[in-house]
Design brief:
The structure holds two protein chains of two kinds. In chain A, 0% of the residues lie in helices and 48% in strands. Chain A is mostly beta strands. In chain A, strands 1, 3, 4, 5, 8, 9 and 10 form a seven-stranded mixed sheet that branches. Chain B is an all-beta fold. Chain B starts with a strand and ends with a strand. Chain B is globular and about 45 Å long. In chain B, a hairpin with a 5-residue loop joins strand 4 and strand 5. Chain B contains no helices and eleven strands. The chains are: A mainly beta, B mainly beta. Chains A and B meet through strand 3, strand 4, strand 8 and strand 9 of A and strand 5 of B.
Chain lengths: 108, 126
């Protein structure tokens, strides 16, 4: 079935911009959703339909999707953004919900 | 806000069975259990998220991951705002936290997990 590929970790200094990619064949033709999971907590939807922020998501979070890569961008990163981030799509061919392997964001 | 409360997690031997439940509450205008697609998502210790099964708001469309198809059964009781997962022939690698997840739409396609429970822990071990 469809595979989503994420780097295992991304590091960024406070105040800088973090970019978390999610790769998949022709992912630009699919709707991508992003989740944030802080240590010891349940996942939280932060971006849906590629670039829509949920009501509680800061404007510093944005999403894009084109070609073979979807991207979650976090501007002016704060220590509180440290978490695991997962991308997710619906694969219509297999009728499966598919998650990426997750990216651990470290704020140095 | 919507609250999802899972229950039923336990220690079970390989090959055993277990039934998980999820009770939903806190619906406001524009949201209701019977118009919301639901999923179960598993997370093994220190690992990523793994989708297990999904069901449409009316219960008429059901989907399973390849690894659980034929052994797990997802169901819902819209009169009680409850989601269930019957698990049979459990394997050690299926240990982990099982999350109940709700979309805001009726259909499973394009599923987005807007609401998540805190999870219930399943341990499959002899």
């Amino acid at each position: 079935s469809y595979v989503l590929t994420q780097p295992s970790s991304v590091s960024v200094a406070p105040g800088e911009t973090a970019t978390i990619p999610c790769g998949g064949i022709n992912i630009g033709s699919r709707s991508v959703h992003w989740y944030q999971q802080k240590a010891g907590q349940s996942p939280l939807l932060v971006i849906y339909f590629d670039s829509d922020r949920t009501s509680g998501t800061p404007e510093r979070f944005s999403g894009s999707n084109s070609g073979n890569t979807a991207t979650l961008t976090i501007s002016r990163v704060e220590a509180g953004d440290e978490a695991d981030y997962y991308c997710q799509v619906w694969d219509r061919d297999s009728a499966h919900v598919v998650f990426g392997g997750g990216t651990q964001l470290a704020v140095l | 806000d919507v609250q999802l409360l899972e229950s039923g997690g336990a220690l079970v031997r390989p090959g055993g069975s277990l039934r998980l439940s999820c009770s939903a509450s806190g619906f406001t205008s524009g949201t209701s259990f019977d118009t919301s697609a639901m999923s179960w998502v598993r997370q093994s210790p220190g690992k990523g998220l793994q989708w297990v099964a999904a069901i449409s708001g009316g219960g008429d469309y059901i989907y399973y991951s390849d690894s659980v198809k034929g052994r797990f059964t997802i169901s819902r009781d819209n009169s009680r705002d409850t989601l269930s997962l019957q698990m049979k022939n459990l394997r050690a690698e299926e240990s982990g936290a099982y999350y109940c997840v709700m979309d805001r739409r009726q259909q499973v396609n394009l599923f987005q997990g807007f609401f998540w429970g805190r999870g219930t822990l399943v341990t499959v071990s002899s």
